[in-house]
Design the sequence.
């Protein structure tokens, strides 16, 4: 069974540009989560989808971040325009059902904003 | 603000010894507790979950939970060099519909051959 995959693995962009990160959850997992780890800090929650609906977006830092999950399969996280403080590692995780406790993480996308 | 605290380390133990990793959390209503292992540049990998007070053993790993003290720990017996990684403590917050995990910064473990 394939795990959570994320694309790209690395991205280097300039301040003010737009970047779109993609996450493909484990097949059949309704729950999809986005997390972020900035340098020197802990991994922090961004938002949670159940199928195509946003269940909890309390961790989204501001309106420059837009997450979508059309069709309830893969998800994208767009940052527009990117700022220096957006640099970090963006993780995606998925779990099997709303009661599914185990969140399986992807390898992350390393974003560097210059 | 709900927090999870871990010693950042590095924690160095000799091969074959017991490694003890500790974590405290601030949200008294937390129900679910997880230990993830993360090798450098890789994804966090779940190694233990624990939901009730006491000990839970899985192979060389034992998770311990004390909700009264808001404390969770991970013991690794017979530590191996391959156990060298960062160990992340994660807590699922209380509250209806809330499935987000709150992480500590992680403890870096180094097992010396």
Sequence:
């Amino acid at each position: 069974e394939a795990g959570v995959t994320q694309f790209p693995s690395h991205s280097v962009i300039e301040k003010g540009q737009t970047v779109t990160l993609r996450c493909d959850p484990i097949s059949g997992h309704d729950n999809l989560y986005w997390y972020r780890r900035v340098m020197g800090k802990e991994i922090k929650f961004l938002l949670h989808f159940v199928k195509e609906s946003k269940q909890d977006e309390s961790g989204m830092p501001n309106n420059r971040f837009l997450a979508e999950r059309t069709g309830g399969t893969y998800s994208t996280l767009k940052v527009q325009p990117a700022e220096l403080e957006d640099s970090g590692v963006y993780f995606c995780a998925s779990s099997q059902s709303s009661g599914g406790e185990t969140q399986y993480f992807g390898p992350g996308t390393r974003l560097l904003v210059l | 603000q709900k927090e999870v605290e871990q010693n950042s380390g590095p924690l160095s133990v000799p091969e074959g010894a017991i490694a003890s990793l500790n974590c405290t959390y601030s949200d008294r209503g937390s129900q679910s507790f997880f230990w993830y292992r993360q090798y450098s540049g890789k994804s966090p990998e779940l190694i233990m979950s624990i939901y009730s007070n006491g000990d839970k053993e899985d192979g060389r790993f034992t998770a311990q939970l004390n909700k009264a003290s808001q404390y969770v720990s991970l013991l690794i017996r017979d530590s191996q060099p391959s156990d060298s990684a960062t160990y992340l403590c994660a807590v699922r917050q209380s509250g209806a519909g809330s499935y987000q995990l709150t992480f500590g910064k992680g403890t870096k473990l180094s097992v010396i051959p």
Notes: Chain A has a mean pLDDT of 93. The interface with chain B takes residues 3-4, 31, 33, 35, 41-45, 48, 55-56, 58-59, 91, 95, 98, 101-108 of chain A (CB under 8 Å). The two ends of chain A are 37 Å apart (CA to CA).
